[in-house]
Fold:
Amino acid sequence: MIGSPDLVAFTKEDEYGQTSPDPWALPEEFSVPLYPLADSNPWAKTSYAKFTKDFILISEFSEQVGPQPLLTIPDDPKICGTFDLNYFSLRIMSVDYQASFVGHPPGSGYPRLSFVEDSRVVLGDSKEGAFAYVHHLTLYDLEARGFVRPFCMAYVSADERKIMLQFQELSLRFSQASECLKAGNRRAFAKELQRKLRDLEYTHSVLQREEGLQREAGPQRMYSAHAVEKANELANVEKSIYEHRDLLKQISLYNRRPRRDPHAVTCQKCMSECLSECEALLDKYAKLANPFSYNNKGEKREEGQADGGGGDGEGDEEEDESVKRRPSYTPQLIKAKSAKCFDKRLKTLLELCENTFYSATVELLKETERSFRGDLCYLHTRRLDRALCRKQRITNFLFEEDLGDDDEDEGRTLRPFCAVNHAVDNYSLLNPPPIVLGPDHLELDSLEPPDPLDPASETSHTQESELGLRESHLESSPSDQTLETQESSEETKGSFSSDKSGLGQSERQQNLAGMKSEAPDPDPDSDLTPDPDHNTDMERESSSEETETTAGDDEGDNKEDQTPTSLLEVVSGLEASREDVCEGEAEEVSDLLVQIDTACCMAQEGFLYEASAPEAVPRLSQNSHPQPLSQTLVVNQEPQAQIPLQDDYTVGSPCSESPAAGLELPVGLLGDAVSRTSVEDGWDCTMSASTGSDRAASPLGYGGTVTLRQRKKAGQGALRFVRQYPFAMQALWCLLSGRTLVVLGADEGRVRRLVAALALFVPSPGKCGERIQAWLSCPFTLTDLQRWKLIGLQRVASPVGSSMLYSLSRYSRYISILDADQKTLRCPPYRGQLLANIADHRTYIRRGSTYFLHVQSTLCRLAAKAFLFTFTHHLHLPVSSTEGPEGLEGRRCCFLQEQLGLGEEDSHILLYLSQLITHQYLQPANRSSATAPCFSFNYSTSVLYKI
Amino acid sequence: MLRWILGGREAQGSVEKSSVLCIGEEQPKNWFTELQVLKGHFDIVRFLVQIDDFRCASAGDDGLVLVWNVETGERLQELRGHSQQITAITTFTCSNGLMSHTSLITASSDRSLSLWDPDTGNRVQTISDLQSSVKCLLVLERLCVWVSGGEELCVWNKDFQLQCHKQNHSDTGITALIELPKNCIAAAMDKEIVIYRLTVSTDSSMSVAEIRCLSDHQDQIRALINVNDGLFASGSHMGELILWDAIDWNILAYEHILWEESQAQAEIRMGAPKPSEMSIQHLTTNGKLILAAVGSGLYVYSVLTKTVVAYRKVAHDSNILHTMLLSDSELMSCSEDGSVRMWEIQDLPLPAEPATPGFFGMWSFGRSSKQAGPPLKKIIDVPNIRTLELTGDLIGHSGAVQMFVSFNENGLVTCSTDHLLILWKNGERQSHLRSLVLFQKLEENGGL
Structure:
């Protein structure tokens, strides 16, 4: 409510350079910066964009037709208007930032899969008025050139600053989507390989048979041209088999590859599943090197199963499936020469990824699009709102919408997006290294003392190599080159590479150098700590570009790994990752146990950045290898946005406690229905500010989550209630002081509407409005009164009705009754002043959303008072041992009446809120035991209010 | 008051309306301003026993015994074992030297007896396949034995070994048992009180002998209590209250509670007075006063003066099931009408002027058909009679309140036919306690 858009115009700009010592000032992170002065006309830039709303565009660089748009989200042709998607696709796909290295690298016999990290760029086309966050990714396709299919996902907006300021968030979300796509793609690719291998195997056997026949038929030592051709063909097929087997191995090694991308979080379970799947395949086809015939597949299957026994049920299942599928699939002869790229049909994106993964990704992107609706101002205020809410965690439950649990952790948990909805417990706690954008974090880093426990010998070594490497990156990393080329060729488009990141880097380097010089003596025991693994990881990561692309070389670098064959290593790695599942099986490979552990560590350390700050920061700086890339890529924008941009980036995080806390929105993507819908509401609020229309009552009540949208609609209803009923104040007082209000009426719609309107004022309504019962048509009991604070009750003229009336009169001391039909209210008299300004039936407020904000601010103030009251020590405990309860009572009264200026009835509200806060605060301790909730009441006479 | 809700229809709400004693919603003396509903039983909850300062056990027709923490409302133990309803429950405190340990003895319709440890929830001892179900239990702590009464009287030691037993010939069996001086036991059987004596012989074997049979009651004995060391009292279905000497078993006082005016009215109205209207449902005492629940009325009898101190003919809308004397002037009663009421014995403002407007205003509040005339026509024959003033009522149960146990300032537990227990507490005290806990936690956490 503080960060509501309505308030923006009234705030003044703060000078960020000087921190005001005024203790009463609002903390800096909550103040709303004005639009930068440089852009005097905020509409100037967006005016000529040819589309109205932001959208997400997925494009591909097809090897046949070049860049082409695939789909937009939302999938609505109106979205883009006259905007030329084809042209824009060309723009965003014209530069391949990933600079993938494909084909045969020198020195290796087989084609290599290139493991390329995603790249993130902000591109602008000022002529078109379009700006885009572009996320490039590469999918694997056996039929594609170099086995890769470059794709990109772009968030296209007319507001460049929006993209710049949301970069981190965008990057996070698109990374998740990309990881999801890639996970599905790997599975599909493995399946495709399997199919291909089977075909090859069949071809091989056929050829072998033919060759044998020929050999028998033909004279010895005499090769006909035909026979030679056959032999060549056979050799080709064999080579092809080896190649494909190698590919399979490579794809199975994917997971164990160190990831440079800090945002690349994948579901571990998916990973291991995929791994096991590949593993099973690999096992199966590893045995086929011998002269094989296609016919004895039964045996092979058994073998495969026996070998795959190390995997878990999923792998077996998968294999069973493939076994089942086998009869229906007839292997085909593979021609020696594959078709040229233009006469074959390329797979669609859907085919490239499995269906589940594809649809999950689309869902994810849709949600991303939804969450970025609204203009920058709205997004910003919403973020401030949430930041504020998170600060008042203790009183939030009273009147605020629920923020969800995901974004409340102080160390941010990045949950990997998992398309197949694995249990969320397998996510790794991750403190994503921030993409450093301003000098603040760097200073922070330099202030951070180097960890004396760090194994410094290796550290310094890696640092050195890393520094050197980074330098080379700065000068010659392919991305930079492309940037430069882009700059030179497309200056007219207004995109350029900034020097800010370079500056940041040199600072960083200095810091690192400082750290290096300060680094203590090497710790002899350092080998025992998990860090060496990590360091070797980093070493591998930074030693050469090849380690990225050639997965097979990893084993050479890895000194712990002494197993000769990579296959074994994969097996051990597999088992290590399963160690928790089947511990018993580790015994079988007991001599590999140590290695298993290290392999396990390695596999995970690559992903895991511990959240502990003092340790993490130096490590992050060591690990910052990926950052230059993204850093240079980030800042690819117009010059005048530079300076304010920096400020804006730091708006969210002047407190240095969490370096990552800055601009990033909480990534409550999963199941966070509340925030999602509230975002939708925000869209409503900012764009179509017409909540005043008379719509049907929201389906508020038991079961559904009470969303902000519903609450805003309720604002309109509440306003109407307040204007209509002169005793609205009394009704609100009942709700706020914890007296259950029963809305009695014959007409369900009217009762439900009233309940929905009044639900705004129910303190602590619960996540799904559990304390509210919108429509009840049976007699209630005491437990119901205890559970519900607002009840809509049906008035019926039947025996049921009379027993209901009986219960009404029986429990009349606990309830207030609002009769919707006769327009009366029976409740204890209220004469306070506190609610006069939200329940004034002559109010000038005309719009529901305005009233909602008005109410929210009043309620927020109340909650703050209640907080103060609850946690003020001397109001609850005697200050001295001699003081009796009377003194305490007097002090409390004095506080309530004189300091807070509350009358007796108003004090009831505060006492009730305070009681709720106390319960909430103590709750985690009591929650273990199933204690019944308390129900407080007091004995006071009721009076009947009429219109 | 509530007619506006009823919308002109005279519905069942009239029950409340016609209640003679509607104290209204303003109850300044009622400090039970917080409640907790304790769920767990599946059938009528009939018994409550206090185990110690903060625990109580509840038992009922579902055969379950639940142990509750009264301070938190937590369910501590669930004692399962009886297959049928519980007919009697009592605590059994065994003190060996310094430590004293309280166990629970339960009797059930499945003709079994069980000893439970409420700390662990274990069934320590059990005896099944008794000849008949036990209706009442009595613990003789002095002898470290306990007695079960039903169709036969059995004496057990603390290890659940039968010491001796006595068959009796009454149809109804023993309905109540109390301990008397000189190792005697008084057992109520239908209209008679039988005195048994326990003798411990030299080889520490026990025997029980019937000494005397007191058959002065005209009707079935409903209540039997110890008043003090020298007195015990019994009440019958037709309203006889007899005070007995505990040593020589003579009648010290005989009081026949007849609601004269009520009968007169009843004759006018119906002609057939219901005997339950004068049945003594329950007796309690604090040594000086005896409180008798007579039908739906309350009757306070002074032991010293052997006179009626105060009475209220219609104290509840329905039969009173349990009563308690909180102090010399405060008492509490619960009834089939689902409410618990708190009373205060007050002096009449002016003895010469018994009909003060306030007083009568109270009484004749509802113009009901049930209570037509002014009920306080003539105070029996006692000049200095005082009045029972309603100070508060607790409404929460939707069925008859079977029993309640007071934990003084910790609160009050009520049990009811609606399968629920309600823990009534002093809201202010609870909120203070919660504040204490809050600041304690705050300190532990080192701030918010």
